[in-house]
Specification:
Elements: H1 3-25, H2 31-52, H3 55-87, E1 100-104, E2 109-111, E3 119-130, E4 136-137, E5 142-143, H4 146-149, E6 159-171, H5 172-181, H6 183-212
Antiparallel strand pairs: 1-6, 2-6, 3-4, 3-5, 3-6
Length: about 220
């Protein structure tokens, strides 16, 4: 068998294998396996293009191979960032450069329940309380994030300053940009909102238990 016939057989076998990989990609439901099979397809088609002198195929998949490799690296990096975010504590010190300072006096209401929400706050100093639930926030806490998740973007409770302090505010527009640009922040924000919801539920359960407790004889 001469070299030309060998190249034809290699090309035919490679095309069959590559076709199997291409069909397999249509069964993939997630991006990482899809990229892996894409890389395998590129490697097989490059290997078959060399002996058959198919330079167009060689150039095409020589270009697609590093692209698929780069996209796979991005997806793996995203998964690592998400896992890191899920396992991290709820600290938002890094968000301060995006925020605007606001000084608050005791008795000042920062926002009222059912008013339009457009920002969330980071507590730097002082004491602040949600009037309806009685929840007090320590220094370093975030408040006002639930208004962003509300279908109508309305405040779910009233926030009052009970001891003079300083807060930092960040607009929901900036939060949305950070959410899109930084997946770790997106998962952080979901954890923050979930923690606040569970905290509110716990407070409501405690109040309900107090109201339903039998009166002493």
């Amino acid at each position: 068998m001469d070299t030309s016939h060998l190249a034809e057989h290699i090309g035919a076998a490679g095309s069959v294998i590559a076709s199997v990989f291409v069909v397999a990609t249509y069964t993939m439901r997630t991006m990482i396996p899809l990229r892996v099979f894409g890389i395998l397809t590129n490697v097989v088609l490059i290997a078959t293009a060399i002996p058959s002198h198919n330079y167009l195929q060689l150039v095409l998949h020589g270009f697609l191979l590093p692209m698929n490799g780069y996209r796979l690296h991005q997806m793996l990096q995203l998964v690592r960032e998400v896992k890191k975010s899920v396992n991290s504590d709820l600290s938002m010190e890094w968000l301060k450069p995006f925020m605007t300072e606001r000084k608050c006096a005791a008795g000042e209401v920062l926002f009222y329940k059912d008013e339009k929400a457009d920002s969330m706050l980071y507590i730097v100093s002082g004491r602040f309380r949600l009037v309806e639930s009685g929840i007090e926030f320590p220094v370093g806490a975030i408040v006002g994030e639930l208004g962003m998740l509300s279908p109508s973007n309305m405040r779910t409770q009233t926030l009052e300053c009970i001891e003079a302090g300083v807060v930092l505010s960040v607009s929901y527009t900036q939060v949305e940009e950070l959410y899109v640009q930084n997946p770790a922040f997106g998962f952080y924000f979901l954890r923050l909102a979930s923690a606040r919801l569970f905290q509110n539920i716990e407070k409501l359960e405690q109040r309900l238990a107090q109201h339903t407790a039998p009166a002493p004889a």
